[in-house]
Amino acid sequence: MKFNAPRGTNDILPPDTLKWQYIEKKTHQIFSNYNYQEIRTPIFEYTGLFQRGIGEVTDIVEKEMYTFEDKGGRSITLRPEGTASVIRSFLENKIYGQAQPTKYYYIGPMFRYERPQSGRFRQFHQLGVEAIASNDPALDAEIISLGMRLLQGFGLDDLELHLNSVGCADCRPPYVDKLKNYLNEHQDQLCDNCKSRIDRNPLRVLDCKNKSCQSVIKDAPKITDNLCDSCTDHFDEVQEYLDILNLDYLINPLLVRGLDYYTNTAFEIKDNALGAQNTVFGGGRYNGLAEEIGNRDLPGIGFALGIERLLLSLEAKDIQLPVESGVDLYITVIGDKAKKESFKLLDQLRNQDFRTEMDYLDRGVGSQMKSADRMNAEYTIIIGEDELNNNSATIRNMKSGDEKEIQLSNLLEEMKKLVDKEDI
């Protein structure tokens, strides 16, 4: 029987894994510069966490979660996003008793049962940040700028920042009622999906890409015209702080995001080179989430960025990450005695952080050299009985073809010089 990876999942193979490692390393570095610390939460949680946190009438909870019953009869869900788990951990471990705000970041796989398409998979990977226990508009701007700086660090600079406020528990309900009335008046022009959303989750109608729905949406009441004074002031200050950082943005009243827990600031960063699915990352405030999950009134804000979507964006711009595959030295061996001595040399070199390799298939010299070439070896050396007897061998630069005679007993010192780019 032949087995394949489940639909919507992918094997990430070398040398592509080097790109992932580079992205993760850069993420650790930049997030640490902003004083965000890494948190690692379980890959699955009790289903109720996401039902309460994300919202029972969202597409994620209704259609996309991987939910199953464990052997104890408990309903378990593979995490579809990272924020609810981070807030659960914050509350469970009583981090609110420590100095605030708390600033976390995470990197890991998420799971949603969606129709696989470009940049969208059933197992996908996100990196994200969460800043908890502060409602300061400056923190909103910091979070947004952090995401932008991260993308710029990968070479992406032709991006659009879309910004909105989705209000709060005081001003959003009256706006939702007004929106419902408007949508009901134009129900005959809406797609079936949007018709079903009018009563359950009318804000999601604003995100529909159907042309007929778009013609209705463009004249719909705008939430930015219906904010309370507090939300208006907060939104104005967020923009002031973004102006201080010289970050350009577009006010997009139709931007609502797909999760029920958002309040106040909502944002998305778009790359138009990606076509219809052009959002690289997005996020916003979720000031009611901690109360919904754990009855504790704590504000928060964050964003999540899909690594697969980031790689697509880099590919669309033909941006090559500075990663190199291959080995520093490939030792070609002739004979059993040379193999054992070379095995010892490999160990010494590896202990000094050199990437080294040798043959394990008892191939001839020609085949070993081809293997070295396929491994993108920077240098090669042939060691046989004559080289051992003379304590000398010829080391070759595989790119330039230059060669140099060295003492085998000095191989480690010679490699230190060579890898430091000194000419041979």
Shape: elongated
Q: Which bin fits the share of residues in helices? A: 25-40%
Look at the structure and name the CATH superfamily of the largest domain. Answer: Bira Bifunctional Protein, Domain 2
CA-based gyration radius: 28 Å
Number of helical regions = 15
Mean pLDDT: 93
Q: Hey, roughly how much beta strand do the residues contain?
A: 15-25%
Q: Which secondary-structure class do the elements indicate?
A: alpha+beta
CATH class of the largest domain, named Alpha Beta
Q: What is the first-to-last residue Cα distance?
A: 53 Å
Strand order of the largest sheet: 1-5-6-11-10-9-7-8
- At CATH level 2, the architecture of the largest domain is 2-Layer Sandwich
- Major β-sheet, in short? 8 strands, mixed
Enzyme class: ligase
Family: Belongs to the class-II aminoacyl-tRNA synthetase family.
Protein name: Histidine--tRNA ligase
Organism: Halanaerobium saccharolyticum
Account of the protein in words:
This protein has 424 residues and is α+β, with helices and mostly antiparallel strands. It folds into two domains: 16-171 and 227-316, BirA Bifunctional Protein, domain 2, CATH 3.30.930.10; 329-415, Anticodon-binding domain (Rossmann fold, 3-Layer(aba) Sandwich), CATH 3.40.50. 38% of the residues lie in helices and 20% in strands. The chain is elongated. The protein starts with 15 loop residues before the first helix and ends in a 5-residue tail after the last helix. Homodimer. One of its GO terms (molecular function) is ATP binding. Belongs to the class-II aminoacyl-tRNA synthetase family.
